[in-house]
Structure formats: structure tokens, C-alpha cells
Write a structure and sequence with these properties.
Blueprint: E1 6-12, H1 17-27, E2 33-40, H2 46-53, E3 58-60, H3 69-83, E4 87-90, E5 107-111, H4 126-134, E6 139-146, E7 156-163, H5 170-193, E8 197-200, E9 203-206
Parallel strand pairs: 1-2, 1-4, 2-3, 4-5
Antiparallel strand pairs: 5-6, 6-7, 8-9
Length: 215
Amino acid sequence: MSEKTLRLAVLLSGGGRTLENIAQAIDRGELDARIVAVISSKADAYGVIRAKNLGLPVHVVVRKDYPSPQMFSEPIWTILREAGADLVCLCGFLSLITIPDEYAQRMLNIHPALLPAFGGKGMYGHHVHEAVLAAGCKVSGCTVHFCDQQYDTGPIIVQRACPVRENDTAETLADRVFDEECRAYVHAIRLIQQGRVVIEGRRTRITPTPQNYIG
């Protein structure tokens, strides 16, 4: 099967900057992809406004309306299947979601640290950067990984690093990490589109030639 235009879905809970970054990469021709669905777990997330401003189909599935991750996941997967999503990208999506077998290797997340450090439940946004600073790290960065049924434990695809500076705050470090996130996520999506990511147990191998196209 040859490389094809990817049908991407984006799940978010916040401002939607990563959604906008992916949309801009598509507009620049860096990704042969189309965003076919955006889902927010919060009705008042600014990412909903960003998605509408970008002319993207956006849905709201509020986590607190459902008593369990399984029940919360059901309407999300209905939307994604109806949209024909090839690949699902978590972009600041803060709720655990149950992943069906058909999407087991077709859902990605980006984390604002170098996993496996500073990951897990409750480690998101400024909490991560504050923890990195409190630990006295000299280097931080970001990680793009496949999702599994837990927080931040799936096989790693791409990592990018940046320095932690002596006068950093959580906010200044977050800005530097986000610059790396913008590069890393697009790169990871492109590698998957090219069929060059092979999962071997807990690890991935990036091959020089295509192995397994999505779709």
C-alpha cells in the first residue's frame, strides 16, 4: 500500500496550540494530512474556538458527564469511526481513554518531558515543568509516544531535548519545551505516515524504508 493522505483526529482539553501547530504544518505542506475531527473534553476549552476558527469539525464530550473512562470513551470512538480517522493525536487531552484494539497502534500523545521521567497521572502542563525545576535537571524536552491504557507508558517514537537554564521558571521552560514539541509531533506523524515506525515490545524502531503504512 502506498503512502496516502492521513485522516487525523485531534483530542484536546485546553488551549489548542498543538492542534494549531499541526494544522499549520499541513498548510505548509510538511504533512500530507487532513484533520477530520477535533474532540474536546471541556466545553469551555479555548481549543474549541481555535478549531472553529480553523474551520475544523469540532465536538465536545465532557468527561464529568460520564461515570467511568469506558463510558466516556464510547461516544468519542463513535465520532472517530464515523470521521474515518486513520490516526488519533492527543494534544493536551487530560482524561484517560479506553483504546479499542483497532486503534491500539494508531493513537499518539505528546508529553512535555523526557519520559519515563516526570510522567503519570497528574503530570501535565506546569506541574511537569515545576517538577523538572525542583529536581534540578539540566535538560528537559518532550516525548511523542504511542498510547496504551495508562498514562505516559506507551512505546516512545520521538524525543527532543532542550536545556534548563539557571533562571528558568515553569513558564519560560514551558515555552522552550513547546518549541521542541512543535517539531517533534509533526516529525512523529510524518514517520508513521511513511510507514517507518515498527513497534518491538516496549520499544520502537525507525526504519530507513517503509514497513507498515496506516490505512
